[in-house]
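Figure-free illustration: sequence to structure, shown twice.
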Amino acid sequence: MKTSPSSQENYDTSAGIQRWAVQAARAADDKLGRDTVLIDVGDVMGVTDLFVVTSGGNRRQVRAIVDEIEEQLTILDGPQPRAVEGRGTDDEQTWILMDFGGFLVHVFDEQARAFYDLERLWGDRPTIDWRSDTSPS
């Protein structure tokens, strides 16, 4: 059974934001999101603290990953996205951006991920090992 991050952890705290971002990464992994990474951009970006970056093998999988993230965070009584961009027609689902305020989730298809290469762009920022994070799963 999946449990939510500690109810003592307020979403507005850095630890709370990180716990929900880890949950989003795990949800992406549940739908076979590829090469999922968490990038800490909080010190250099005033609008968010973390990026979750993942990809799917095709547009259908990209949509399934996005749906799973929303579903899992809802089940865990987590934050809902403030906005979701790129969810239009199948032709537009090469990069879907989910804005949760404290963290952003970028779900790419493989080609778009290689083109935009956020990991290279933000390569000087630390990453968080979400697989070994002690947040409940």
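We now fold a second protein in the same way, so the two outputs can be compared directly.
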Amino acid sequence: MLIPYVSIVGDILVLIALYRLSRAYGNNAIWNNALYALITAIVGGLVLAFILAGTTYLSLIYMGPGALSKLGIAAAFFVAFYIIILISGFFLRNAYNELGRSSGVGDFSNAARWYWLGAILTIIIVGFILYIVADVYAILGYSKLRGG
């Protein structure tokens, strides 16, 4: 990504929108699930980075460079990354499903489905493309909301 902070700012703006919509519809599940999704992604990413750095450091210091397979570290890292994406995707799916139920806009339910499929299929890289599809459905849903 050329501009790394755009994603973070976008996530915060979506979180603010989901907070306000949860208050407008009187459905706290929208906000709670969106917040859990973001917290899971951030904390999971930080924990994963520390585990990777610590494992690599310990393997080099105590066991030498050949003792712990680099492929084994990469596999463990990938599995942990996938689990974090699944958990975060689960909460994001729940947030958009609740928003779809509360607002009556079907595009939010479609976004929820595509976010979940994206999380599941991240293991074969296709999931990242499905996240973009989910974002398009979410944008369509936001555009159909009435102001009030």
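Summary for the second example: The mean pLDDT is 87.
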